[in-house]
């Protein structure tokens, strides 16, 4: 049994003043593997005070000093990749290939921030005015359980590059990953108070952060419901806010697409991160003229996807992160059938021989109307819906008929036509015939998928405010 007993404030390991203990689980078995002692309001206040005290000095550092600090951070994270990999598999249940990517991502995202920082234009001339990009102050960073280590490193690196100091509230469900990252940050010898990590509940630590006047900026990744609460709290003190929230991403398979290419890409997009991803392409739009053909091809592909032990490289999908999440996904599978959708593959229950872990049968629905809840609400699990359309205009209308607007994928042989369709989709990112990610491009959503952008120079600018000097 593992016991996580400390948080990090002002460069020191600190025993939380909070006394609540939260059970940690291995989602592949359902067994309790340890506990984490949670921080309380007093701990959050101490962390904010430490970050505030460190801000004046850190905000005046030169680009070279920040690059040096980020490079030390990068090297420390690289050195603990194997330990982080073990934590990700045991604590989150990511399947082997995905877990390796997640363990390497902290280094990759820090490398990208270093590159962005070195190219960033902090001062520009506009007529008689000089415009200077200045750091906002203390940043509150709140990270989710579906990629905890990566989000900690990405958000923190961007904040530090901009000249901000930070208070981080990671998911309490990811305490082992957080410990690995925190040790690495200590080894990087960042100045005291520049980063502070306070593991606690959102309604306790997150509430303090979203309301406190000494927090100038909130960067949150998580559910749309929580994002709305943060936005309301932040309004009282006019905090700058970046929210990367939920999605119900469409995959538009055009009528000239080759199923041999389109189907594998659609399955990868839909089941990314075991379906526990805001960008997952869970609405698969197919032309009615080829609907039966795609139903058969997609059903065969989904039936071949393996859900099971994340240590086994043969498995494509790992468990849901918690029993609560497993129950949520099961309820949506039941709901889809009640709404009149037809199951082509998968269904309720666990896959064969999966034990008591929180595994879900990869599921594919068809005869789905875009008005159904399974087509409108974020399920956050390996559940896909096939929706038919008449022509390109109808497909675009269905794609845009959602509260969300985070990501989309367009698949078709005629690239110019596919690009024209992509241009009409209301989403922060639209991929055309690829699942490639461009780390230097902005990432974020329209509508209920969030506010603001992360990544690239846009992600750095989100932690700054322009100041105009007229001379």
Automatic annotation (TrEMBL):
InterPro entries referenced in this protein's UniProt entry, alphabetically:
Ald_DH/histidinol_DH, Ald_DH_C, Ald_DH_CS_CYS, Ald_DH_CS_GLU, Ald_DH_N, Aldehyde_DH_dom
Q: Which catalysed reactions does the entry list for this protein?
A: an aldehyde + NAD(+) + H2O = a carboxylate + NADH + 2 H(+)
- Write out the entry's keywords from A to Z: Oxidoreductase
GO MF annotation list: aldehyde dehydrogenase (NAD+) activity
Please state what class of enzyme this protein is.
oxidoreductase
Q: What Pfam families would the database entry show? A: Aldedh
Residue ranges of every copy of the Aldehyde dehydrogenase domain listed in the record? 13-468
Question: What's the family?
Answer: Belongs to the aldehyde dehydrogenase family.
- Please state what the protein is called: aldehyde dehydrogenase (NAD(+))
- Its source organism is Kosakonia oryzendophytica
């Amino acid at each position: 049994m593992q016991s996580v007993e400390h948080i990090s404030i002002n460069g020191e390991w600190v025993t939380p003043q909070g006394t609540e203990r939260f059970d940690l689980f291995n989602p592949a078995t359902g067994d309790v593997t340890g506990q984490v002692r949670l921080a309380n309001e007093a701990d959050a206040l101490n962390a904010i005070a430490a970050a505030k005290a460190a801000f004046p000095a850190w905000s005046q550092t030169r680009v070279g000093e920040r690059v040096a600090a980020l490079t030390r951070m990068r090297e420390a994270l690289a050195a603990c990749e194997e330990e982080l990999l073990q934590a990700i598999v045991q604590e989150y249940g990511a399947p082997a290939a995905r877990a390796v990517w997640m363990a390497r991502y902290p280094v990759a995202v820090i490398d990208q921030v270093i590159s962005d920082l070195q190219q960033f234009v902090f001062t520009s001339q506009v007529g008689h005015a000089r415009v200077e990009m200045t750091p906002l102050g203390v940043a509150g960073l709140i990270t989710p359980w579906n990629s905890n280590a990566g989000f900690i490193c990405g958000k923190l690196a961007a904040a530090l590059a901009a000249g901000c100091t930070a208070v981080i509230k990671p998911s309490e469900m990811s305490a082992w990953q957080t410990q690995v990252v925190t040790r690495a940050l200590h080894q990087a010898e960042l100045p005291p108070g520049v980063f502070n990590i306070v593991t606690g509940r959102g309604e306790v630590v997150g509430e303090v952060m979203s309301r406190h006047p000494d927090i100038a900026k909130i960067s949150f990744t998580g559910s749309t419901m929580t994002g709305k609460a943060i936005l309301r709290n932040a309004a009282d003190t006019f905090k700058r806010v970046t929210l990367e929230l939920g999605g119900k991403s469409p995959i538009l398979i055009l009528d000239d697409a080759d199923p041999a290419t389109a189907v594998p890409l659609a399955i990868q997009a839909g089941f990314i991160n075991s379906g526990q991803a805001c960008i997952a392409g869970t609405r698969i739009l197919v032309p009615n003229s080829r609907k039966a053909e795609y139903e058969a091809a997609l059903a065969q592909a989904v039936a071949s996807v393996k859900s099971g032990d994340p240590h086994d490289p043969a498995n494509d999908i790992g468990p849901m992160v918690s029993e609560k999440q497993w129950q949520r996904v099961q309820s949506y599978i039941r709901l889809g059938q009640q709404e009149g959708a037809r199951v082509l593959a998968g269904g309720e229950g666990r896959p064969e021989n999966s034990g008591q872990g929180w595994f879900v049968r990869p599921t594919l629905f068809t005869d789905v109307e875009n008005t159904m809840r399974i087509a409108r609400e974020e399920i956050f699990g390996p559940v896909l819906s096939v929706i038919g359309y008449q022509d390109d205009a109808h497909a675009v209308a269905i794609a845009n008929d959602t509260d969300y607007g985070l990501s989309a994928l367009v698949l078709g042989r005629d690239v110019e036509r596919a690009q024209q369709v992509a241009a009409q989709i209301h989403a922060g990112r639209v991929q055309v015939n690829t699942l490639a990610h461009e780390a230097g491009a902005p990432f974020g959503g329209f509508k209920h998928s969030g506010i603001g952008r992360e990544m690239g120079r846009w992600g750095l600018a989100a932690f700054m405010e322009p100041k105009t000097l007229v001379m």
